[in-house]
Amino acid sequence: MSDTDYSQGVPTPDLDDAAPEPTLRIAAAAGAGQRVDRFLATALAGRVPGVSRTRLQHWLALGAVWSDERALLPATRLGGFETINVQVLPREADRSFEPDPVPLVILHEDDDVIVIDKHVGLVAHPAPGNWRHTLLNGLLHHRPALAALPRAGIVHRLDKDTSGLLVVATSERALASLSAQLADRSMSRRYLALAGGHLEAPITIDAPIGRDPRVRTRMAVVSAAQGKPARTHVRPLAYGMARGSPMTLVECRLESGRTHQIRVHLGHVGQPLLGDPIYGGAGGTIDRQALHAWRLAFRHPATGEAVEWTTEPAADFVAAVQACGIDAALAFEQAKTP
């Protein structure tokens, strides 16, 4: 995916920089009534070198501990029936939940949500290779109280080299509401993408996504047993040519949020993103995947009101579209038509 949502457990870690950390599964039968951080400090002693309650609290804050498809908080009381998943993080992660003065473009902020226009190159969440200076660290610098929420309130992420809109919860009420909207697919997330080939009519790509069994640092369309359901609706907006090859500017609408979803799905149907060689795309007029999260709509957690934001693509995306002979302004305006 470009846009990974956190409404259903902890998703596949960002694959742009490193392979995932190992994950342990712990039965909580002996921990009934205990705080999860206290229980795990005992349960993991001897299994994980240097583990401590303090380290576990960092892992919990990063969303690296979950059960039954939900991230756990340090103070969560166990019922004893859970199976707890623990992503074992290295020492470098111990300071990853600290503030850094990361520049953020904030389009809206209130007591419950922050809407951000993420710039190209900004990693959303600490992960191997990027433990500091991420969006999460910038949010903690901007609003320290977010340290009380898992992942500082980040409910979905964009790949490092994807630009555009994402929403952050700033209260427990908002976190629950936005996670529910992601899970029931009522949150609308739309993207602009420059894809290879000519797509003549709208299509829906309904294909499970999981780790590529041949290349573990990639995702792929896999069997239902190996992956998670994923559905992407793709609508052509305009046609052009890049270095003699046909291109289509498309709008993609997500019904699920899997790691690299749009990139995997478009590559799977033979129309990979320009600038995305990982999934079969050619280089040329842009040196990253040509993908932009241009529209975000959801119900406000406090009022229930329908709210919506749009944002223009980054300059390199616009230049790539124009280099294909497409009128970028006209095409982006067409995207606003249902």
What's the SSE blueprint?
Blueprint: E1 3-5, E2 23-27, H1 36-43, H2 53-61, E3 65-67, E4 70-71, E5 83-87, E6 106-109, E7 113-118, H3 135-142, E8 156-158, E9 163-169, H4 172-183, E10 188-196, E11 203-206, E12 209-211, E13 219-221, E14 231-242, E15 245-254, H5 261-268, E16 291-299, E17 306-310, H6 315-323, H7 328-335
Parallel strand pairs: 9-16
Antiparallel strand pairs: 1-8, 2-5, 3-4, 3-5, 6-7, 7-9, 10-15, 10-16, 11-14, 12-13, 14-15, 16-17
Q: What is the terminal-to-terminal distance?
A: 23 Å
Q: How many β strands by DSSP?
A: 17
- What is the element string, with H for helices and E for strands? EEHHEEEEEHEEHEEEEEEHEEHH
Helix content: 10-25%
Based on CA inertia axes, which overall geometry fits?
globular
The whole-angstrom Rg is 20 Å
Largest sheet: 9 strands, mixed
Spans where pLDDT lies below 50 across 5 or more residues: 8-19
β-sheet strand percentage: 25-35%
Structural class based on helices, strands and sheet pairing: alpha+beta
